[in-house]
Amino acid sequence: MAEHLASIFGTEKDRVNCPFYFKIGACRHGDRCSRLHNRPTISPTLLLSNMYQRPDMITPGVDAQGQPIDPHKIQEHFEDFYEDIFEELSKFGEIESLNVCDNLADHMIGNVYVQFREEDQAAAALQALQGRFYSGRPIIADFSPVTDFREATCRQFEENNCNRGGYCNFMHVKVIGRELRRKLFGRYRKFRGSRSRSRSASPRHRRDKEFRDRDRDRDRGDYRDRNGRRPDRHDRDSGSRRKLGSPRRSRSPAPPAREGSEERRARIEQWNREREEKV
To answer: Domain RRM, which positions (predicted)?
Structure first.
């Protein structure tokens, strides 16, 4: 029984816990929902409810006076808001992700989800946001159960074919420009790179470095053995020859120099005289 309940927890088959609150941290029924909303007491993710006020809040693409708004102006307005929130919240720790909903339903419109690297960073940010205002409106912040935004976002919206539009029950996350993303999140990549380079080398790395240094010193003629002695030239030369695979060989005597024709004739005449004297 317990395994069955665990397998259906947070799904449509779960008749006790609200699946939408579990997946997106919000529910269209709110407190009137017939299923439980298990609010976490600690989480790396914070939900800032209805915080982003888009300029075309009443009608998409149209301002409050009924005038059309340039889409570039809407994007600039959003990115200014995004950068303000990011810079303020990054004071409390490293931000893993910052997502702003583009949905139009009351329980999701303008929702801001910020996920920190550590839970204590999210707790510090939550405490600092209590009683604060943004653009003349109070900030409503709380821990969110959302930790995997892949389950919370609408896949059809990412493929530009969601037929529910802004009233979809899954997140339609607004996208910032590439330059702004590189500017805000690039600082963490630089920090992680410098932190990884500053780590002490592994024993294997140190051992390989010692071998490389020893070979370099041997090539320079500054190699010393374990006892601190520097081998003489004969040892170094013989060692280098053996290292290259050439075995030590004993030198054979040099061949005698060849005699000239006059010397050979004189030697032959001498042999003939010695033979005649013996006869």
So the answer is: 44-146
